[in-house]
Amino acid sequence: MKYFTRDLIEHYGCLDDEAVFRSAEAEWEARLARYEAGLKSIEPELPEHIRVFTRLLLHDAIVWSIARQGDKLIMVLRKDVPPKDVVILTYTLIEEPVIDRDALSPDYRGEVMDYKYDEFELIRDCGQRTYAQSILFGNGWEMSLRFSDVQVSLAQLVYPLPGTVFVPASAPAVAPSA
Q1: Residue-level pLDDT at 161
Q2: Cα(66)–Cα(63) distance, rounded to whole angstroms?
Q3: Residues of the chain with pLDDT under 70
Q4: In whole angstroms, what is the distance from residue 137 CA to residue 103 CA?
Q5: How many helices (H) and strands (E) does the chain have?
Q6: Fewer Cβ neighbours under 10 Å: the N or C end of the chain?
């Protein structure tokens, strides 16, 4: 990530030191303003479906799955904000994804893999337009993607029933109590 670096994120989470937190908060706001201005400046060059993609509010969305099918990377998320849609992102990759499993130090990693921050970029290369995105997840992973397109599908949850707890298949089994 270029704007929301590890140091900035960790300083922003430093609630024990008011001065460090306030300084990081001010820097965060300044970088966010620069990032949003850059995004707004490239918006006229983006196809409508990519503009829709860049406007998705995915902060704190739970990551249900990340899968591959050939040159496609499929990410299934559950939004945290109402109406809590299921979001299916299907990227057409032009390079292998890069995952940094140590993007955040252990003290700043959560147990849940949720979508924290991302940075989107338009890449112009020899008349071709492609895209890059870096995504920081709450478990401390950062995924960097280079892609030629992304499709977004929004769906309303049917199962599990809204309001119930989703337990990922990788969760440890709990023996029933006697």
Answers
A1: 62
A2: 8
A3: 11-15, 160-178
A4: 9
A5: 3, 7
A6: C
